[in-house]
Structure formats: C-alpha cells, structure tokens
Request: fold
Amino acid sequence: MARENEKPTQDINAPDYLAWHVTQKGEKSFWNKVGAAWKHKDGRGYTLQLETCPINGRIVLRLPLEDAPQTENEAGRS
Reply:
C-alpha cells in the first residue's frame, strides 16, 4: 500500500530579484549570479543576500524570469 505524503507543501520563498555581478571587458559584459533579494513584508525595503562580495564592477538586480543575461555588450543597461 502506498503512503501518502503527510507533510503539507511549503510555499517556496522565491526571491523577488536575482543579484548579478557585471564586469566590462572591452565591448563585452560578463554576468555572474552572486545572490538574491527579497521584498520586506511591509513593502518598504529589500533584504539582499550575497553568496560572494565582488570588489569591482557593479551589482545589478534583475527579475528572476530574466535571469539569463546576454554575455555580449549590454548597451543601454545601467
């Protein structure tokens, strides 16, 4: 007889944004995922959790659905 899963399913606390470290080398941009950000329950801020802390370049927060950045020149992006 098969057992039923007795544990209730938990809501996965997916991040609101993914954090990317972006460096520029000539005409190319290199994107490496370094962490994530979650919105506070009161809606007045975010918690940023970094798995690594880059010392150069910039950190860009992007929506998770857009987490496949282009590695070519990212013209027009801040």
Notes: The CA atoms of residues 18 and 72 lie 19 Å apart. The two ends are 58 Å apart (CA to CA).
